[in-house]
Amino acid sequence: MDTLKDIGEFQTSDEVIEELKRAGFIKLLNEGEVLLQESNPIQFIPIILSGTIKVYRTDDDIKEILLYYLKPGDTCIMSVMGGFHNEISKVKAVANEASEVLLVPVHKIGPLMKKHPEWINYILRIYHQRFEELLDVVNAIAFKKMDDRLLHYLKRHSNLSGELTMHITHEEIANELGTSRVVISRLLKQMEKEKLVELGRNRITLL
Q1: How far is 129 from 77, CA to CA, in rounded Å?
Q2: Is the N or the C terminus of the chain less surrounded, counting Cβ atoms within 10 Å?
Q3: Which residues on adjacent β-strands are paired with residue 54?
Q4: Contact, 109 vs 80, CB < 8 A?
Q5: How high is the pLDDT of residue 95?
Q6: SS3 string of 133-162?
Q7: φ, ψ for residue 49, nearest 5 deg
Q8: Nearest C-alpha neighbor of 77 from the set 100, 53, 95
Q9: For the segment 30-76, what is each residue's pLDDT rounded down to a tens digit?
Q10: What global pTM score does this model have?
Q11: How far, in Å, CA of 70 to CA of 51, rounded?
């Protein structure tokens, strides 16, 4: 639980940490395991302790687009806001790798924020961060070419893992960027010619 001591880039008190431990429980997720499903009631607020979680938005055609990643110390602000208003989830959250998540019941968050005002700052900071990331997604879809979006995606994926080599399929990338596998494969081949990447079987290395 050491991650809780520095949630959201500010120090939390031992009292808050103990309350979180008592109020919630830890869930271990395997890569690809769903943490939050669209249209399901929001019962818990997740706080990421280790690993990374991908948050998607899908449509009726089962197409999806990646909105942002949750890293250690993060929470899903959509879950927080939806939980406060007894709404169903509007996003899908999936473990990007083996992850550890603290799940705090929605009804425990309000009293915690009233008792410990620093949590309001935490929620506001996370809200601002997620809002900026969503603006980036909108800007990319509206104004950037797919090759620019693809390169940005690969760099972000690499930064999260700390590795230049990513084990991921063209189909997975296409799903997360909301396009087709054929488009991604064509762009990656062009990027390989430009010596931006090196391609292998289910493997992409940034150069």
Answers
A1: 10
A2: C
A3: 69, 94
A4: yes
A5: 94
A6: HHHHHHHHHHHCCHHHHHHHHHHHHHHHHC
A7: -95, -40
A8: 53
A9: 999 999 998 899 999 899 989 999 998 887 656 778 888 998 888 88
A10: 0.74
A11: 9
